[in-house]
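We examine the record.
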Amino acid sequence: MADSVVLAYSGGLDTSVLVGWLQDEGYDVHCLYVDLGQPCEDRAAIMQKARDIGAKSAEIVDAREELCQDFAFPVLQWQAKYENIYLLGTSIARPLIAKVCVQRARQVGAVAFVHGATGKGNDQCRFQLAAEALEPSIKIIAPWRIQKFRDKFAGRTEMLDYCEAKKIPVKATARKPYSSDENCLHISYEAGDLEDPMVDGQTVIDFGMTVSPQQAPDAEEVVTIGFESGVPISVNGSGLSAAGIVDALNTIGGRNGVGRIDIVENRFVGMKSRGVYEAPGMTLLYAAHQALEQLTLDRDLTHLRDQLSPQVAEMVYYGFWYCAKMDALMAFIRETEKPVTGEVKLTLYKGNVRVSSRKSPYSLYKADIASMERGGSYDQTDAEGFLRIMGLPVRVQGSVRPRGY
């Protein structure tokens, strides 16, 4: 009786090849498609393809709500962006995929968890670190790190030839061989022509979630987003599930050309990589959430959160979701976000997003204190003593270390 493995199956080029190759190696393959709200995929066709290739089983697990509520929204609360720009859509999803695959491996008695991430990329780190945190003794099979596999598949051309010989249908082609990864949070694009940083990514990609800003409507659109304790709860006054909120904002942001970025990022393994991303809904959520925090969080707490946020982004990007440090940081942000409740209106126009209004029952903004007009509760003469005290150290330093100017 053949050993069984669970394959994190997307239906794309790499994992379709893996179904055939693992069978060639003598394994029974259980394909698991983790439904994360991939917007451009035919799930029934993907499952049928796995069965046609010869998978022992092909299952779908719907994890859309969990992805948004338990993974994406906590990262949003942190305002975490890798290298100040990337909203981590792929990174956030990987520990959840690993979790579901480990659960499936237990169910079917599989000897290993298999993924299609390359030995050059970040996903191998995210899958393995998450799986081992959840099941320390689990065996990981990563074919791209196996010399025998690389000898057979030197590149995407050989994989396409293999699929043609096995009659495995795939989306990638030799003419347009860039790869994509999609979920309800975003779509990422890399490889192929995008490996040349001189190529304009906007001209070679068939975007799946957004229109180009040039094709967006000629009129502004206003959207209102509601939050409770830093968690999105409504769009335009309608309460929605976590996944429903992301889907609704993807539609609104996407038709206004919002959320495209093109970056050269530093991978965990050390190399630089060029990627193009579109994340319309999450771009709107980040903008609205930040605006609400400006009303409701005090200065020192906001600055502390901002100091820690890059560390959270790095941990998510690298794959350290399940660890003691992340547990502690998530406890911190849950406490931090308690007053972040209210509504924010965003005005969208041809790829641009601006905050047009914000309100909260816990607003720390007080007009009678902040007003530049006369009166109010702020006594400007108090600033004299404040500045004398705050300026004491620099006056002392200046008296003993005169500075030339």
Remarks:
- The radius of gyration is 25 Å.
- Residues 226 and 343 are 4 Å apart (CA to CA).
- The first helix runs from residue 13 to 24.
